Amino acid sequence: MDSTALSAVQNYSASRAATQPSKTPGDSMFGRMAMDFTQTLAQGEQVAQQSMTGDADPHALVQALAQTELAVETAVTVRNKVVEAYQEILRMPV
Amino acid sequence: MSDFSKALGVSASGLQAQATRLRHLSENISNADTPGYRRKTVPFRTEFDAGTDVSKVEVGRVSLDDGELERIFDPSHPMADETGYFEGSNVNLLIELADAREAQRSYEANLKMFEQARQMSSGLLQLLRR
Q1: Per-residue DSSP letter, A15
Q2: How far apart are the first and last CA of chain B?
Q3: Does A77 touch chain B if contact means CB atoms closer than 8 Å?
Q4: Closest to B66 measured CA to CA, from B100, B37, B45
């Protein structure tokens, strides 16, 4: 009996647990980063609305929009890198 | 919060403080001819935020300059006393204008720092793009 094929199947089933998604999405570092990002975005939007109605001063508006720009730029750059890495893996000859 | 966003926040607090200073200066200048007006002085103080560990600047309590009021001779003025004098304001336009110019320069310096923090952060992210 070929035992190497059997152990490959065993190894595969043992490592399947690692490919399961984790149950708590907000717990990981990436999840926290995403929460931070959405929080910055929401704050920028809120300050923009307030300054349109005359509640916030223009300095707060400029600061919030610059923070939002920084956050969006970071998120877009990281997303591009992640997608690039994913496509690199897809192109891998199996 | 990265150091860049903290720098943006500190610069914005500086801009805000200089804008408040300019507002009080223009109040002084527009009240230069008001009888009995005392010029306002604006103190700055450090506002330390322990949560984010940054030192912002904020405007403290506005105080009044208790210097000598200018005595103006005009017997026909309704507020003139028996000697014909009444008390004007103690605003010196020269001092106010010099202070306003200084506020402008500080504002520009803070704007420059804001711009630089933004440029540095986008320059850093530029490294990841090819």
Answers
A1: H
A2: 26
A3: yes
A4: B37
Q: Give tens-digit pLDDT for B22-43.
A: 999 999 999 999 998 999 999 9
A84 touches chain B (CB under 8 A): no
Q: Which of A59, A67, A73 sits opposite B125 (nearest CB)?
A: A73
Q: What is the ipTM of this complex?
A: 0.76
Distance from CA of B71 to the nearest CA of A (A): 40
Q: Where residue A15 falls among pLDDT bands split at 50, 70, 90?
A: confident
β-bridge mates for residue B45, sequence order: B58
Gyration radius from chain A CA atoms:
22
A23 Cβ contact partners less than 8 Å away, ≥ 6 residues apart:
none
Residue B127: helix, strand or coil by DSSP? coil
DSSP string, A30-48: HHHHHHHHHHHHHHHHHHH
Q: Are B11 and B110 in contact (CB under 8 A)?
A: yes
Asked whether the beta carbons of residue A81 and residue B128 sit closer than 8 angstroms, the reply is yes
